[in-house]
Amino acid sequence: MGSRTVLRRSALITALLVGLVLVEGVHMALRHLDKRHDFSQDQLFTVSDGTRAILAKLEDRLQIKAFVTQEVRSGEMSLLKARVEAQIKDFQRLAGGRMGLVVQDPSILSAAAEEAHSFGIEPLPVVTTRGGEQNRQLVYLGAVLRYRSRTEVIPLINPWSFEADFAGAVQRLLRDQRLRVGWLGEPVDQDSLPWQFGTFRLLRARLEARMEVVDLSVPALEAGARLPDNLDVLLVLRPSDWHPRAVFALDQFIAGGGHALICMDLVRSSPFGDAAHVAQGKALEPSGLEALLQSWGTPLVPGHVWDSQWPGDRGWVVMDRDANGQATERGRLEPIRDPACPALHAEGFERTFPPTARLDSVQFFWTHAFGQGTVPNGLHRFDVLRSSPGSYVVDPVLKSVGDLEMIEGQTRSLLASGSGQAMVLATVLSGSFPSAFTKGAPTPFDATLGDRHAKVGITDEPVRAHGEPSQVVLVGDCDWLRDPPPRDLGPVMPSASAANLTLLDNLVDWLSQEEDLIAVRSKEPRERPLHNFLEAERNSEGLLATDLPRTQEEMRDRLARQDQAEARARRARWSVMAWPLLGCLALVFLIAGLWNWKERTRP
């Protein structure tokens, strides 16, 4: 046998042995090693410290029953299912043997389908297209968690928010009883046509999925009732014309150590941009909390915030007109950039405050600002949401408009005044609260007497002050939590968007001292829109303004600037693509040069 044949056989055997070693090494690493690196910018594939801390609190066995369709025809759905399965395995590993898993497929087991239905887990219709043919499949992806004698259900697993949903469910299972949230102020539905002025059904359902919601009555407080001390968080929605006795009940709850989220708003608006008081022929009513806010050093600024730098998006319904110029019954929705609907940017969020640390966007509607007052001893004020430096206070908006010229004219007039500044849209008060009722408790309101604005007397009741440390979050708007209008109306006004509801969840969790969930919830993927070079260049040339050219000379000038903007945009795009390519080529030439130099200098 020739030496060449021996060498070939030896090389083949060596390659096979190396391949076997690599395969077995990878297999052993997967089974025994836990060394992975998450290259995603938001660390989306790494279990957060908050989830680790929650799982570390398990004392007994956590049992999970997952209802999952095993054979999924949709490729996208298969990837999402695989991500969920990988997350569950990570949770099992971190639970250290205190977590069991049972998986059932309701699509092939009728008993599993009945059990899933009993827990409110329903299949999701998924449509796939193959060869021009559409196939519809019902896919189950839900889970039931049991711990001791308690049960939590995740009816439909969203892979990108599953960790937050899972950690929240485990956190609730670990508690002996659910958090209690008091609902005070505006009811869920306000009138016979609930959608007309916005409802809070989405907000209510979101809270009830996690907590026990306790309905509280403002008239009962005005008649002398007290707020229960066993509330974990008190949610106050748009207080309006409260009698001093109701304000006293709120004052005593907070002075005794209660935590509250108070959303101030003097105007209740409709999806069409009309204010409720205008539709009802009424003037603006005070909240009744003016003296209380002043005593805390956080007075509500009269008027609304007009943010010229961070205007938000909303729609405006424009009715079609016939040949005679008369409005018809048909219309269309036109997009508007409205400074009266501030859309906060990242710079407006306080990054040292956990609920706002990782938020990028929240939009308000006709929001109020909080001024600077004298904060009493024992309290600390911390401003957490701010508008842009180009913000102004305008008279209360009585009716929203869709006239772009009016909006731009108002903005130009305000800019010319030079009085723009960042406004505080949300602030936090922490510490031991004094009572604003130093002269004594006001007498209850007697509804049979009728005049709620009559002079109020003083009772000899004890007034509580400087109790346990408390926290109060004040937000200058309430519309950010309202339900979106019907789909056929479109986005005519800001409402409870996903980002707004995330902020709400974070604030409630912070007030109820559930900060582990805030860190988990912030891991959801954030939008990173592509840079539009042409739009940026057109904006620098002033071509995005709404003013149209009035003469041929202005038209020629506009076209010339358009050509210049397009040329600069092309150069910018090529520059962005060329520099990485040139850098790679330079690196290749450098390595080649070093290798060539090494070969030449080898003895």
Structural overview:
The chain has 603 residues and is of the alpha/beta class. The protein has three domains: 49-167, Glutaredoxin; 180-511, no CATH class; 534-603. Helix content is 34%, strand content 20%. The protein is built from 15 helices and 18 strands. It has helices at 3-32, 49-55, 75-95, 110-118, 162-174, 201-208, 218-222, 244-255, 276-279, 290-295, 404-417, 498-511, 515-521, 533-540, 552-601; strands at 62-68, 99-104, 124-130, 133-139, 141-147, 150-154, 180-185, 212-215, 233-237, 260-263, 304-307, 311-321, 327-344, 362-363, 379-386, 391-394, 424-431, 470-475. The strands form five sheets. Strands 8-7-9-10-18-17-15 form a seven-stranded mixed sheet, with helices on one face. Strands 2-1-5-6 form a four-stranded mixed sheet, sandwiched between helices. A hairpin with a 2-residue loop joins strand 5 and strand 6 (150-154). Helix 2 (49-55) runs parallel beside helix 5, helix 2 (49-55) packs across helix 13 and helix 12 (498-511) packs antiparallel against helix 13 (515-521). The longest helix has 50 residues, at 552-601. The protein is globular, with a radius of gyration of 31 Å. The relative contact order is 0.10. The model has no long low-confidence stretch (mean pLDDT 82).
Helix content: 25-40%
Summarize the main sheet. Answer: 7 strands, mixed
- The parts where pLDDT drops under 50 for at least 5 residues are none
Strand content: 15-25%
Overall average residue pLDDT: 82
Structural class: alpha/beta
Q: How many whole angstroms does the radius of gyration measure?
A: 31 Å
Tally of individual domains: 3
Overall shape: globular
- E-strand count: 18
Strand order of the largest sheet: 8-7-9-10-18-17-15
Quote the distance from N terminus to C terminus. 36 Å
**Number of helix segments?**
15
